[in-house]
Design goal:
Layout lengths: L1 E2 L14 H4 L6 E2 L3 H5 L1 H8 L5 E7 L2 E6 L2 H8 L5 E2 L3 H4 L9 H4 L10 H15 L4 H17 L6 E3 L1 H5 L1 H10 L4 H16 L3 H21 L5 H7 L6 H15 L1 H16 L1 H5 L8 H11 L5 E7 L3 E3 L2 E3 L5 E4 H5 L28 H18 L4 E2 L21 E3 L56 H7 L3
Parallel strand pairs: 1-9, 2-3, 4-10
Antiparallel strand pairs: 3-4, 5-7, 6-12, 7-10, 8-9, 11-12
Helix pairs in contact: 8-10, 8-19, 11-12, 12-14, 13-14, 14-15, 15-17, 15-19
Length: 473
């Protein structure tokens, strides 16, 4: 048994881990632009330790990163040993620690265990089951068309700020019955937490925004996720409702934005998908499979804390110290038997075990429709810069582009169409960036008893012309 200190030689010249190595001997940093620019090279270097490696999530914040696929599954499927409750760990963490808001204990279904987790998750999964996926598809299509109308006449756009960031916000504002002013603050707070820049302030902004939303829904309940959580038979307190909303909004906006943007980047830059548009034949669903394997929107997360000192794969994991699953590193573990990813959904992008993402069907549906609509509207779209010049946002947890500039032949916008004005991605009303609100059908099921429907069972959107484009017809 060996401790999780570093016995190996320094990284090779040019490795993104090299610059910070001397300042923090024994651990490889997962923050800063070097890691963001080439995380795959860092994961490859970390595998020299085996399936577990010593890292820093922020200066002075040590953790063990699981980069082996089988080891990751072992941890995720052993909630008795590897718990989600961070309270013992955070006792020794300063209040201004940049990763604390992402890792701190909150009474939600992500940070709890056992019966408490089961109770909170029941409220979440039952409320998610009330979403009508057909209506959700239609709402995403209309939202996408509205956003596309804002830039299709210009012949150029940044698909992160003008599309991928705005679309999930608009959809989730509708799902949660969230007015635009609160929605803006939710995104501001959530983005700041993921970026770990002034995270303490971002956490305060986020908390106040959710508090205001819950107070609003107590006064004016509706057919929305916030109201359904409040009305669930497990009788959540307002504080518990707040934390479930934060969890769902966090999973549904920032990572969803990254899934859409990373999927578009792949489709626009990889020869198998769109390098030769006349010969490209792999559909959006296959592109998303590839992204979820190689560039999952949450690259390193699913954090656990051993309940005791554990000898795991020859490494001593100290009690109550973070064990972080590298969802990206585990997915790309060279020991996996096959590189065939099309149609293969054994990846860990949604995590695994009792804390597997409960909204993966809805998340995948939103991303698929968002990409379909954009490619259908602008089939001649191209990256405006080489793919290797795209810039990634720093941070230990996410895989997020700062921008995705594209160009395309300008398309005239029909007179009378909903055209959002340019500006910040967060606003969704006529006063600010995204123009008039999109009229939507109710997103609640019409049946008396909610039932689960797989995203793949929902009817396809405007697909025929996109298929013809991919096949050069």
């Amino acid at each position: 048994m060996t401790p999780s200190a570093d016995p190996s030689p320094v990284p090779p010249p040019g490795c993104p881990a090299h610059a910070e190595r001397a300042a923090h001997p024994g651990r490889v940093p997962l923050y800063g632009p070097e890691f963001a620019a080439d995380p795959g090279r860092v994961y490859s270097y970390l595998r020299r330790w085996g399936p577990l490696a010593p890292v820093e999530l922020a200066p002075g914040v040590p953790a063990t990163l699981v980069v082996g696929y089988d080891a990751a599954l072992q941890v995720l499927r052993d909630p008795a040993t590897f718990v989600k409750d961070a309270r013992e760990w955070q006792k020794g963490v300063p209040a201004d620690c940049p990763v604390l808001p992402m890792m701190m204990y909150r009474p939600n279904c992500r940070n709890t265990d056992g019966e408490v987790h089961a109770r909170l998750r029941a409220a979440v999964t039952d409320s998610l089951a009330r979403i009508d996926l057909n209506a959700l598809r239609g709402h995403v299509e209309r939202t996408a068309d509205t956003l596309i109308s804002g830039f299709r006449g210009r012949g150029a756009a940044d698909l992160v700020t003008e599309y991928a960031r705005a679309l999930p916000l608009m959809v989730f504002n509708e799902l949660f019955g969230c007015p635009p002013d609160i929605g803006d603050r939710l995104v501001e707070g959530m983005s700041g937490i993921f970026d770990t820049v002034d995270a303490k302030k971002a956490n305060q902004v986020l908390r106040q925004a959710v508090r205001d939303l819950v107070a609003l829904k107590r006064r004016e309940p509706g057919a929305d996720m916030t109201s359904w959580l409040m009305a669930h038979p497990v009788r959540l307190t307002d504080e518990e409702v707040m934390h479930q909303v934060v969890t769902l909004q966090g999973a549904g906006t920032e990572p969803e934005q990254n899934l859409i943007a990373n999927g578009l980047r792949l489709l626009l830059s990889d020869d198998r998908f769109a390098g030769d548009l006349s010969g490209g034949s792999l559909p959006v669903e296959d592109a998303l499979d590839e992204v979820l394997w190689t560039d999952p929107p949450l690259a390193n997360f699913a954090i656990t804390y051993p309940v005791r000192d554990v000898d795991f794969a020859g490494v001593l994991l100290p009690r109550n110290q973070p064990v972080v699953i590298s969802l990206a590193g585990a997915n790309t573990d060279p020991s996996l038997a096959s590189d065939q990813r099309v149609g293969n959904r054994a990846h860990l992008a949604w995590s695994a075990g009792p804390h597997i993402c409960p909204a993966q069907g809805q998340a995948r549906l939103i991303a698929t429709v968002a990409i379909e609509q954009l490619l259908d509207a602008l089939p001649d779209m191209e990256l405006a810069v080489p793919a290797d010049r795209l810039v990634w946002r720093p941070g230990p947890f996410h895989r997020a582009l700062t921008g995705l500039p594209v160009s395309f032949p300008a398309v005239s916008v029909p007179e009378g169409a909903l055209v959002p004005s340019a500006g910040t991605a967060g606003a969704v009303d006529g006063r600010e960036s995204t123009g008039p609100a999109v009229p939507v059908a109710p997103l609640v099921r019409a049946t008396a008893r909610a039932t689960h429907v797989a995203a793949s069972d929902a009817p396809r959107g405007p697909w025929n012309s996109l298929v013809k484009w991919w096949h050069g017809e």
